[in-house]
Amino acid sequence: MTAQAGAQTLAAPTGSVILTISGKISATNNGDTAQFDRAALEAMGLVSFETTTPWYTGPQKFEGISLDKLMKLIGAQGDHVQAIALNDYTTEIPIADFAKYNVILALKRNNEYMPIRDKGPLFIVYPYDSNPELRSQKFYSRSAWQLSKLIVR
User: Fold this and answer.
1) Distance separating alpha carbons of residues 28 and 2, to the nearest angstrom
2) Cβ-count burial 134-153 (b if 16+ within 10 Å, e if not)
3) Would strands 90-94 and 80-85 be described as parallel, antiparallel, or unpaired?
4) Could you read off the pLDDT of 7-54 as tens digits, one per residue?
5) pTM
6) Which among 94, 98, 101 is positioned nearest to 133, based on CA atoms?
7) Which residue from 153, 55, 145, 69 is spatially nearest to 107, judged by alpha carbons?
8) Is pLDDT of 71 > 90?
9) Where are the domains of the chain?
10) What's the number of CA atoms in the CB half-sphere (13 Å) around residue 137?
11) Quick one: CATH architecture of 17-152?
């Protein structure tokens, strides 16, 4: 990253953009947004966990990037993110959740990339089995799938 007009510049994606982040961020690569292709997200380092969810039968392995790490990379300066899915579903998530609960932006389920028809390409997943508090509608509603945009507020 290089400093440019008080902001950080991220490398531009070379593949198809699957995530666009805007709002109160200091690192960008396309105007006032930060755009990522799958390779750029994976280059951040993948983490995984196994958990049960209301959407699948039995424990599932999810693999993706730490949302806390992503927020630090883009210089998020807000308290919440608005997550927007391809179908225009939106939800508000406190940024503090990302570090507190080790929330990931999953690219894979059970070692396979998730297609759009199966909640992909990106799915915000909490490790629901790690804390009884997470097994509630409050947190399930924050778990946007088919994610395409994040707006830092």
Assistant:
1) 10
2) bbeeebeebbbbbbbbbbbe
3) antiparallel
4) 678 999 999 999 999 999 999 999 999 999 999 999 999 999 999 999
5) 0.93
6) 101
7) 145
8) yes
9) 17-152
10) 0
11) Alpha-Beta Complex (3.90)
